[in-house]
Amino acid sequence: MSAPAKAIPGRTYPPKAIRSNGVINGVAPPHPIMRGLKGVFLLIACALVIVPFIAVISTSLADQAQINAAGGYVLWPENPSFTAYQAIFRGGVVTRATLVSIGITLVGTGLSLTVVTLLAYGLSRSGSWGHRPILLLVLFSMLFSAGMIPNYLLVKQLGLLDSWWALILPTLVSGFQVVLMRSFFLEIPQELLEAARIDGASELRILTMIMLPLSKAAMAVIGLFNAVTYWNAYFNAVLYINTTSKWPLQLVLRTYVVDNTSIGVDLPGDYIPPQQSLQMAILVISLIPICLVYPFLQRHFAKGVIIGAVKG
Questions:
Q1: pTM for the complete prediction?
Q2: Are residues 249 and 298 in the same domain?
Q3: Using CB atoms within 10 A of its CB, is residue 198 exposed (0-12), middle (13-18) or buried (19+)?
Q4: Domain end call among 42, 63, 81
């Protein structure tokens, strides 16, 4: 029998669980029936989320006979084919729209992160110029919105109609994100910033060398919110974009899936893919980028969403 491990001086250990008649630390374990019901509920919830994704992907790979036999959506294609993907990419419309959406998402997210970070850092310094009036304007923008017609008139007066900037600038700054980032900056110890100022560091150097490295979680969450917003946005494109060659992917998806309007595809060979397979293929293409980016930001997400929620 091995000797018990010795305690290391100065090291804290978690309290041991006290068991008494099946009760651990005064809390009774759940009944087996309740545990079984929780498991069943979780399985149902997972199925409700996963099955639609499987149906969309499988339908995009199925032929017309399988779609008709399944009543519209296929859960497992017998002879999967990528003809629908070949057709929509040969047509060029979806390819161009995908590139437009990627460009708008990258540029919009980068500019939004830059502007939100600079504004939030300025508002987190109580002695900065115009601190209180600007903060009140940011809070006011969270409560009231100008509306669709004033926004359209503003974009028109600025000469941004039928321009990709009309899809980026109207949603560049979010008051909620500014307040979120400001609260994160306020939680960073002020002694750290004072020490940097004593060493001669400028405000820009403090922001780039101290604040930003410590704010990765907040920036990851805000960047994810902005990326999803720019990628999924189509209403601004409906209002401001008149040239079809400048349409983002979501507007093409809406036109092809919701309106059931052909966008002009080059069908490979003599085989004509089913209309529903083409629609599901475009839907899959619109889902892939966010599904690829989210796993890399997930570890920051849990920390970022509770910014400012815990004090002390």
A1: 0.73
A2: yes
A3: exposed
A4: 81
